[in-house]
Amino acid sequence: MARPARYTYVGEIVSYEPDGSDGPQSAQSSRPDFLRDALFRSSKPVSLSSLFWRPYYYATCQVALPRRGWDVADTSVDDEVPTGFEAQPWNGEMICTHCASLCGSYTAKRSYVFNHPLELHLDNKEADITTLTDDPVPPRLVFQVLRVDGWERQFLEGYTFVDLPREPGSYNLHGSLWAPRGNLSERLSASFCGAFVPLASPELVAADELLQLPRNRSGLCVRSAGSLHLRLQVL
C-alpha cells in the first residue's frame, strides 16, 4: 500500500482588513515599512471615549476537506505526554482567534491584527484514475469574521474561504469576505439586537452537502465585507 503524501501548513491568520486588500490607502502607505512603523509609534494616542465604544473583531476557522482521499494527519506520539506549554497540531475543527481592535492612529488602511498561529498536517492518499472526478476542489480553510460592540452584541461581518496550496513555498493569501443581507426586518434586527443572518452551516461557503463544488450564491442578496489576510508556509 502506497504511503500517503503529507502536506504541512505552518502560518498565521494575520489580520482582517475591512477596506479590502486593494482598499484605499494613504500617501504614507507608499513609504518603506520602517518609516511607516516610525510614524505609527509617534502618532498621538486615541481618545478616551473610543476605548469604550470601539468595535472588536475576531475570526473563526475550520478545515473543509474533499470527499475522498484527504484526512487530517495524526502527528501525536504515543509515549509523549502533552503539557499546557507545548503547541499542539490543529485537528481541523473550528478554532477562534482573540478579539482585536483598531490601533489608535493608523498610517495606512485599517487593519485588525490577530497574528493567530496555525499548524496543520494533511494526508493525501494516492487517488485512482477512476476517482479523480470525485476530488474537484482542493482542501480549504473556511472563515467567519464577527464584530463585537461595546454592549457585547455580535454582528456577522462575513464569510470567506481560501484554497490550501499544494506546492512548497511561502504564500500571502487574501480571502474576500461576503455576508447575506437578509430582508428589511432581518437587517433591522441585526442592527439593533445583534441577531445577524447566518448560513445554515459555515461549511456551505466552501462546498455543498456532498463536499464538492461551492454552493451557487447567484440567488443570494449579499454584501462585500473586506478581506482576511493569511500567511502560510507549505512544507
List keywords for this structure.
about 240 residues, 5-stranded antiparallel beta sheet, 3 helices, about 10% helix, about 35% strand
Q: How can the largest sheet be summarized?
A: 5 strands, antiparallel
Residue ranges: pLDDT <50 for 5 or more in a row? 23-29, 128-134
The percent of residues in helical segments reads 10-25%
End-to-end Cα distance, whole Å, is 23 Å
- The shape, in one word, is globular
Beta fraction = 35-45%
Q: Which strand order does the major sheet show? A: 3-6-1-10-9
Name the average pLDDT.
Answer: 76
What structural category arises from helix and sheet content?
Answer: mainly beta
Spatial extent as radius of gyration: 20 Å
Figure out the total of helices: 3
**Order of H and E elements:** EHHEEEEEEEEHE
Number of strands: 10
Describe this structure in words.
It contains 3 helices and 10 strands. The chain is mainly β and 235 residues long. The chain is globular. It starts with a strand and ends with a strand. The relative contact order is 0.26.
Topology:
Blueprint: E1 5-17, H1 33-41, H2 48-53, E2 56-64, E3 70-72, E4 95-96, E5 100-101, E6 112-124, E7 140-148, E8 154-163, E9 169-180, H3 184-193, E10 222-234
Antiparallel strand pairs: 1-6, 1-10, 2-4, 2-5, 2-7, 3-6, 7-8, 9-10
Short summary:
With 235 residues, the protein is mainly beta.
